Amino acid sequence: MTKPASIAATLASPHPSLSSESATLAQDLVEAFLAVRGETERRAAPLSPEDQLIQSMPDASPAKWHRAHTTWFFEQFLLGEHCTTYKPFHPDYAFLFNSYYVSAGPRHARHQRGHLTRPGAEEITVYRRYVDAAVVKFFREASEQKLKDIAPLVEVGLNHEQQHQELMLTDILHAFAQNPIPPAYDPAWRFPAPSRSREGWVALNEGIHTIGQTDDSFHFDNEKPAHRALVGPARLNRNLVTNAEWLAFMKDGGYATPTLWLMDGFAVVSNEEWKAPGHWREISGQWHIMTLGGLRPVDPDAPVCHVSYYEADAFARWAGRHLPTEMEWEVAARGRHLSDAFGMVWQWTRSAYSPYPGYRAIEGALGEYNGKFMVNQLVLRGSSIATPEGHSRISYRNFFYPHHRWQFTGLRLADYA
């Protein structure tokens, strides 16, 4: 797919990927918008209407809801607030497809999204086309100054949709993993081969480093302000923890040894009867994992994924190590010291998701995007195989609750130098 790129940068000059040097600002926006919107539909294409309805747990959402919600985002915040001639597609859709923007009005309960048999998947397709056409028309008719004014909002919307593109895959994988006859989203799907470093560990000397986004390329508000932080001395493993290493942890009774676990973590293990990472199944004495390509034997060389923070922390303690802080991870990643920092699994850190010094949420309803979640969650860094192209960067701060493991979440180890 075409990357959404930094739309703010395209306002100064034509995007280098465009075929004509005379491309207008409107054309830049149209191409970026349609590329991201098209990728959402490409990811939804293998799914039946029944697949698009299912909500396998409260933390997940149906695929058609993701498609509708990302459409509502542009309808609500772009067309609704900046296009005076726009008429909403349906008066009830704002209630059905708002997520957590309290400032934008009431919304349907999150855990009941799977109850919405209607509108159907095809009606959502019509909704998306209606809004897409209105956005493209708006871009082509707006003044140059108006386009410059709305460009940051459009860029947020495109990156927001890319986040939901990843969630579409993780959510449908979770749903398929509940099926006793395991379906495949894409039979040709394969986990990429890891690029393991032979050097093992990288040492970070004690020093003051800049953390966070330092330039004007796209970033979410939680990645700023850039600030100075003391990092090190520490060592980070260049490689991700593999399934083979995790199998050794399991064989040594890792899931049954309370001294390895945080109290809340062991309570979850006991209550949920965890004996292996998420989506793993033991069949005739051999462990298998549910993937987007269907049920397959666990590959010992692949990075372990679908593990919670609690599991990652327990594994690190079993290995005599700990998880890196997000600052340690960022310094090592900026130095290009980490193998598979991106494109494999999100990596748990032991850093609480909290505001950077001097953080201020942006004004308006979009200020609810990140800041109000800065409690009781842990930061993950990197990106995963489900992350869309162009949506990764070193300063990106993903965050989940410590028991969550339906995402492509893994880990790398750290130690004191």
What does this structure look like?
The structure is a single chain. With 417 residues, the protein is α+β, with helices and mostly antiparallel strands. The chain folds into 2 domains: 7-177, Up-down Bundle (Four Helix Bundle (Hemerythrin (Met), subunit A)), CATH 1.20.120; 201-416, paralog of FGE (formylglycine-generating enzyme) (Alpha-Beta Complex). 35% of the residues lie in helices and 12% in strands. The chain is built from 11 helices and 12 strands. It has helices spanning 7-10, 25-44, 49-53, 63-82, 93-97, 121-141, 144-177, 243-251, 263-272, 309-318, 326-334, and strands at residues 201-204, 207-211, 227-231, 234-237, 280-283, 286-291, 294-297, 346-352, 378-381, 398-400, 409-410, 414-416. The protein has a 4-stranded mixed β-sheet. Helix 2 packs parallel to helix 7 (144-177) and helix 4 (63-82) packs parallel to helix 6 (121-141). The longest helix is centred in the middle third of the chain and has 34 residues, at 144-177. The radius of gyration is 22 Å and the shape is globular. Mean pLDDT is 92; it is low at 5-23.
